[in-house]
Known about the structure:
The protein is an alpha+beta fold. It is 30% helix and 31% strand. It is built from 4 helices and 12 strands; from the N terminus they run E-E-E-E-E-E-H-H-E-E-E-E-H-H-E-E. The protein has helices at residues 57-78, 84-97, 146-156, 163-178; strands at residues 10-15, 19-25, 28-30, 33-36, 42-44, 49-52, 108-114, 120-127, 133-136, 139-143, 188-194, 198-203. A 5-stranded antiparallel β-sheet has the order 10-1-2-11-12, covered by helices on one side. A 5-stranded antiparallel β-sheet has the order 5-6-7-8-9, with helices on one face. Helix 3 runs antiparallel to helix 4 (163-178). The two termini are 22 Å apart.
Amino acid sequence: MSIMEYNGGSVIAMVGKECVAIASDLRLGNQALGISSNFKKIFPMSDRIYLGLPGLATDVTTLKEIFRYRVNMYTIKEEREIEPETFAHLVSSTLYERRFGPYFIEPVMAGLEKTATGGYKPFIAATDLIGCLNFAKDFVVAGTASTKLFGVAEGLWEPDLEPEDLFETCAQTLLNAVDRDAYSGWGAEVYLITKDKVVKRTLKGRMD
C-alpha cells in the first residue's frame, strides 16, 4: 500500500465564469479504519486563495503551518497580498526543497487572480509530492479517489459555469466519485470563491 493512501482523502478544484470552487471530503482514516468524519483538508491562504491538502494527515498539519508562515512573510516583505500563481510557485519550491525525503501531500490550489484591467480571472493548479506544477483551464484533482474524480468531472464540467452551477457541478462530482472509493467520503466541504465573497458549504455524504 502507498503511504499516500494511508489516511485517505480527496480534493477537486474547478473553474467557472469569474469564479472558482474547491472541494474535499471530510474523512480521516487509518487505512480501512475510520477515525474522524470532520478532518479539514482545505485552508484559506488569503482572501482569494484556498489550498487543498490530500495525503498523509501529519504532513497536512505540518504544511498548513509552513505555508501560512511563508505567505505571512511574503506579505510583510512585499507589502502586498500574494497572487495565486506566485503562491503556486511558492508551494512548488517548498515541496521541491524536500525532494529526497518528501512531504506525502499532493496540493491543490484555487483562487482568483487580479488582471491588468482590475478584474479577476479564475486560477487553479495542482502539484505532485515533489512540486511538479500542473496548471489547468478546467479542473484539477488529487487524492485516493482522483481516478474516479477525473471520470465524473469529465462528464459534468462545462466552460463558463455560473457560480451556483459551478457549486452544484463540483459538489456532485465529489460526492459521486468518493462513493466509489473506500478511503474517501463521509461528507464534503465546498468553497465557492467569487470576486465579492467566499461561500462555504458543508455537505452530508454516505457514511458506509
